[in-house]
């Protein structure tokens, strides 16, 4: 029994190593660079193990996406908690002065959140992987479907915050937030020279002022 338990644990660790190596390759070289040999070399495992643990390359990429999506949702839920806390404090008062303070606090919080995607290595890696998955063409139907489900899941999370502030159009407002952040992310990954923290801050302040005022 003990030997069987150790074998299962070792297998799980090997499987995770393969997934992590796949994500690393996606971050550095993109989805089209993936092959069983490249992944096995990056994971430092035998070539046969990539097909032993994953029935196909599509299955391996999908498993890597699931790992990515799980981390992403946790990160989104964390920042959403911070945003909702600030919003609830504003909603208990609701004066014009409090609204302006709320917008400034949220602008500072979200600007810092986006800025760390440049300075924090793990966050930047996650951002790069996100862009590869969201903007990839020619992928399997399974992956395309799962990415669509993930995007809908993220939108539903942001809709809850829009509903918290009494938005009459929570789905539209959620999409406005998502589209704005995706533009920021693309600029970060592509190294857009015209993109800077001042633009992020001013854009977010304008967007948040509009959303919180329910204009």
Task: Report what the structure shows.
The chain is mainly alpha-helical and 215 residues long. The protein has two domains: 9-54, Orthogonal Bundle (Arc Repressor Mutant, subunit A); 64-211, Tetracycline Repressor, domain 2, CATH 1.10.357. Helix content is 83%, strand content 0%. The chain has nine helices and no strands.
Write the layout of secondary structure elements.
Layout: H1 2-29, H2 36-43, H3 47-53, H4 57-91, H5 96-119, H6 121-135, H7 141-164, H8 170-190, H9 197-212
Helix pairs in contact: 1-2, 1-4, 1-6, 2-3, 4-5, 4-7, 5-6, 5-9, 7-8, 8-9
Number of folding domains? 2
The CATH architecture term of the largest domain is Orthogonal Bundle
Count of alpha and pi helical runs: 9
Distance between the termini: 64 Å
Q: Give a short account of the largest sheet.
A: none
H/E element sequence: HHHHHHHHH
Q: Quote the beta fraction.
A: under 5%
Helix content: over 70%
Radius of gyration: 20 Å
What best-fitting shape do the alpha-carbon axes yield?
elongated
Instruction: Name the average pLDDT.
Output: 90
* Low-confidence residue ranges: 1-7
At the fourth level of CATH, the homologous superfamily of the largest domain is: Tetracycline Repressor, domain 2
CATH level-3 fold name of the largest domain: Tetracycline Repressor, domain 2
Which structural class matches the secondary elements? Answer: mainly alpha
């Amino acid at each position: 029994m003990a030997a069987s338990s150790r074998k299962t644990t070792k297998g799980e660790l090997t499987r995770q190593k393969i997934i992590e190596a796949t994500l690393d390759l996606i971050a550095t070289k993109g989805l089209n660079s993936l092959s069983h040999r490249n992944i096995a070399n990056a994971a430092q495992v035998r070539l046969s193990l990539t097909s032993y643990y994953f029935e196909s390359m599509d299955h391996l990429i999908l498993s890597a996406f699931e790992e990515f999506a799980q981390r992403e949702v946790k990160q989104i839920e964390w920042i959403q908690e911070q945003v909702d806390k600030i919003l609830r404090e504003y909603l208990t008062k609701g004066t014009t002065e409090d609204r302006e303070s709320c917008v400034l606090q949220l602008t500072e919080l979200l600007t810092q959140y986006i800025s760390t995607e440049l300075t924090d290595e793990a966050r930047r890696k996650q951002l790069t992987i996100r862009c590869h998955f969201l903007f990839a063409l020619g992928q399997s139907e399974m992956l395309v479907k799962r990415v669509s489900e993930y995007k809908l899941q993220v939108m539903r999370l942001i809709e809850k915050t829009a509903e918290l502030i009494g938005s009459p159009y929570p789905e539209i407002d959620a999409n406005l937030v998502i589209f704005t952040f995706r533009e920021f992310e693309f600029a970060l990954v592509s190294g857009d020279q015209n993109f800077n923290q001042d633009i992020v801050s001013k854009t977010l302040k304008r967007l948040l002022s509009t959303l919180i005022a329910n204009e």
